[in-house]
Amino acid sequence: MHRILPALVLGAALLIAGCATVDDASPPAPTVEGAAAENDTDFAHSYTLKPLEVTPSAPQYALPLDPGTVTNWEEVVAALSLGEEEQALLKEHGFVVAAYPFGDQDEIVGPYRTLGEHDVPLFLSSDTLLHLYHAQFDDTLRRVEEREFFDDLRALDVALLNASEKAYRQSSGEAKEAARLNMGYYAVAATLLAPDAEQVGDGFDPEDVKRYHVDVPAPVRDEVEAELALIDRQAGLTPSPLFSYTEDYTQYRPRGHYTQSERLKNYFQAMMWHGRMPFLLNATRQVPEEEARIQTAAAARTAALLADDPDLMEHWDRVYEVTAFYVGYADDLGPEEYIAAMERLFGGAKQDLTPDEVDALRQELRTLDPPAIYSGTGYQNVGSPEEARKALNATMGFRFMGQRFVPDSYFFSELVYPYTGEFTGAGEPFTLVGGYRSVPTGLDVMALLGSEQARTLLDRGEDSAYAKYDPAYGRLEAELAALNESAWRQNLYWGWLYSLRPLLVEFGEGYPTFMQTSAWQEKELTTSLASWTELRHDTILYAKQSYTFGKGPATSPEKPEIPGYVEPVPEAYHRLGALNAMTADGLFDLDVLDPAAQRRLRDLGDVIDRFTDLSVKELEGVPLTADDHAFIRDAAETLDDLVINLEARTTLVADVHSDPYEKIVLEEGVGPVDLIVVACPEPDGAVTLCAGPVLSYYEFTHPLDDRLTDEAWREMLREAPPTRPWWTGEYAVVA
After folding, report:
1. Is there a contact between 435 and 465 (Cβ–Cβ < 8 Å)?
2. What is the dihedral sign for C-alpha 627, 629, 631, 637?
3. Which of 153, 489, 529, 580 has a CA 20 to 30 Å removed from the CA of 466?
4. pLDDT single digits (tens) 614-629
5. What are the residue ranges spanned by the domains of the chain?
6. Residues 468-497, buried b or exposed e (16+ Cβ, 10 A)?
7. What's the pTM?
């Protein structure tokens, strides 16, 4: 489990309330001190960040900008076809974001080459490095999933299926029913991994069809076939044939990078099954007491089987630890917690528990932390925060490879119905659906990460105009403020968020003039939201998604030296460099880093260091050298090497929150790149227009039964793209 955030149980909206067997009192909240101490034993040691000393004293110029003071105004305006509206914003703020003028472009390196061919000085953006890190993160994860985790997971499922079938034949009574449930559970997972004939040629060969075939045991064949049919249809909110409680089968649509091969599609569905389906600890309205006992006995048997077989535990631990390094630890109880509980009670893990031992184990497990994020299990209406908190324990239970606690999903679960109360505004904000705050917004995340501008936009757009929003937001803000620095370094997910925080501050005196505007804060907000979207896209299988309750109750020729500029945010680059090094070192230590990925991460680290050094020079008014100018001018050639053989398109999408009551999901998307044009100051007092690509960002709701893949998103962008967030119009002229 290993979560890092204080007072987790304050949120964690839950399901299926009103069961007499569940204690009405919420468990005690974890403490900040305990969370920090636990975090110190995890991956934070892989992250090294030395202080960066910078004294901003960049040259300034007056706004609104006088084109007559800019050395290349007419040339750049003509080369980039900037219209009157774009020029007006450029004069007002010292920069403007516009549509990329050379056709839709969904990769971030090519535009630098094209701009250079038009003799436009280059502006190297933070967006570029963040996107290139995403490409490395996503590719390394995808490769280890295909190369190793698929077979690790299959070995686990087949072995546990066989052991469950044997136990079923040898057991009686409650133990036999527990073995039967496990038999069905692992048969579903093993069958999801197995290819059919139509999948041969894309990740599978003909022999794989025979090699991975699963003979489903007769006693569970009907239920397994019914589960597989629901998964295949992505059938929505439907009672599980095996578990009785309601499951959201739309979650089994492969998304993110998992559409890139048939092998990844199968892995996605099997891992989603293991991440979402709990063996519940307590009885609920949908799961009677007898069934809860059977589910607990079944979970205990799985945990004991792993404890008794070092080879099986090695397979499980390898998948869990590597994915924990990327995303974090599970939000739910798992094998480790069940093994430890049995060791405390019985002196060791036991495959066969007596009825009294099942009772004792359930009582022991109830003393542990419940999940913090409601993920839709056993979907149920609640009418108040109190009902939701009393229902918290009802989702407690065992997940074989539980989805991970991530802070942004936790924020979302706390900032929607029923925790935010009734709408008190007069307009129609984005978050208002069905009379309540049914969906959160990425602005919630950015505000809590430190963006005062995001909080201002929440207020201006009435997305905070709910009776209880401010108290809920304040609790989360206090929890984050109490975290020590190591909490932000516990894994790559948190480290990515930590790298965004320097972009979300207000840039004061000494920074370039264009950066001191509120418009620049909104540009950086867009960059951060787009990068966060890429993070959620890459981790869509593992990050636990929040839900809303129901309501109701080669050598180049010589080139002339032309000016160029690096977006001067050295602290962001400094943290990204530490994160990149943590990625390389951690994956190497975990023995899952191939030589090509190791080289790319090393080269990316060199580029990040160069961005950092150039940023410091610019902020301190130090003239760039000829070598510095050559680095900026030749950026396309340098960056090309970082994306060879990678899927590095910017057009991607991720659903990050679900509201089954309104039958919608919150989608976060990145589209083709935009163009930023910036009036960049030179140490000699000259002002030069420089341009480069930046990420675009979209946020919109979409039908629950049509969760978007990257391919579907790209089609939507071509045919009927959604509108951009309203506030981007203050600095951007885009369609």
Report:
1. no
2. negative
3. 529
4. 999 999 999 999 999 9
5. 8-42+148-400, 46-135+440-733
6. bbeebbebbeebbebbbebbbbbbbbbbbb
7. 0.93
